[in-house]
Each structure stands twice: as C-alpha cells, then as structure tokens.
Amino acid sequence: MGRPVVRLPRRKNPPLADTIANLKEFFRRCDANGDGRLNWAELKNVFQRLGVSASGWRAILALLHADENRDGCISEHELDVLLEYCLEHGYIVVVARKLC
User: Does pTM top 0.85 for this prediction?
Assistant: First the structure.
C-alpha cells in the first residue's frame, strides 16, 4: 500500500508571519462580530484573506478539524488547533526571527 498523498494549495507566496503570536492576532482581528469566536463566515473571510481557493470549503474543513466541542465556532482555546491546521496545510508560513 502506498503512502497517503497530501495536496498543498498552489501558492507562490503564502502569507508570512514572524511569530505565532502575530499569527494569532491576525485570526483574532477576523472576529467580525467581536464575540471572541470565529464562526464559519469569519473563517471563510480568513481563508479569503489568505488567498486560499474554495475558502468556504476550507472553512468547513478547518471547523471539522479544530472545533473540539462542535459548537460551530473556533473559540480561544481551539485557536491553537486551527493555527496548527493552517500551518500543516501550507496556508501560512511562520518565519523565525534571526537572533542577533
């Protein structure tokens, strides 16, 4: 049996963040209604801003992966799982700062 195939989005220049903290802040700013959670529409907007094709579908997949309590939203404690999902799938690249 062969290995599973992982298909990454075709992107020439994925969005870069210098730290995970800055990346979390980007996701928090996408909370349009200010309830402290990301719903499907807000996640769709996140993926659109990241330049991902089929952003609505990607938002559904992200919810299925990161929404641990199945309430249809990504809460603060589920945000790390969402970021991990985005990093694993190549939607975001985090660049470590050089130490002087």
Answer: no
